Amino acid sequence: MIIIMSEPNFQDIPAYKPSKNEDFMSTTQIEHFKNKLTMWKDQLISDAESTINHIQEESNQVADINDRATLEEEFALELRTRDRERKLISKIDKTLHVIELGDYGYCKTCGAEISLTRLEARPTADECIDCKTVAEKREI
After folding, report:
1. Is 11 inside any structural domain?
2. What count of other Cβ atoms lies within 10 Å of the Cβ of residue 63?
3. Residues 12-32 pLDDT 10s
C-alpha cells in the first residue's frame, strides 16, 4: 500500500470570492489563506505520521526475499514523496511567515498583486504568473 499525498485537498474550504470593492489581501482574505495553508500543513504532517506507522507495521511481516525487495522499493518511493512534502512544509512555513510580515499576495520579483485564482491554486506562490513564466523560461 503506497500513500502519496502531495497536492492540497481543500474540499472543506471553498475558493475565496471577494466582495465588491474589497481591498486586495483584506483581513478576510488573509485569514482564508492562512487557514488554507495551515490545513495543508496539518494534512502533510498527518500523512508523514501515517507513513511512519505503515513502514513500522509492514516491515516485520515479510519473510520471502522477493516480497521484501518489493516492499523496500515501495518504502523508498514513500520516503522520497515524504521528503518532497517535508520541503513543501518548509515552504508553507515560509509563506505563513510572509503573511505575518504583511507581504503575502504580492510578487517578490515585481511587487504586483498575485491573482486570487493563482493563490487558490497554489497558496505558496510568491511570484505573479508573468514573473514565474519568465523564470521558468530562463531555466530551460
Report:
1. no
2. 6
3. 677 888 888 999 999 999 999
**Same domain membership, residue 121 and residue 94:** no
Q: For cell 507581504, what's the residue?
A: 103
In a domain, 123, yes or no: yes
Is 17 domain-assigned? no
Q: Are residues 53 and 119 in the same domain?
A: no
Per-residue pLDDT tens for 42-67?
A: 999 998 888 777 777 776 776 788 87
Residue length, the chain? 140
Residue 113: beta bridge partners?
106
The domain of 123 spans 105-140
What is the model's pTM? 0.78
Task: Give the whole-angstrom CA distance, residue 30 versus residue 105.
Answer: 9
113 in Cβ contact with 18 (< 8 Å): no
Which H or E element spans position 127? none
Burial class (CB in 10 A: 0-12, 13-18, 19+), 17: exposed
Q: Look at residue 128 and give its three-state secondary structure.
A: coil
126 with 97, same domain: the answer is no
Number of structural domains in the chain: 2
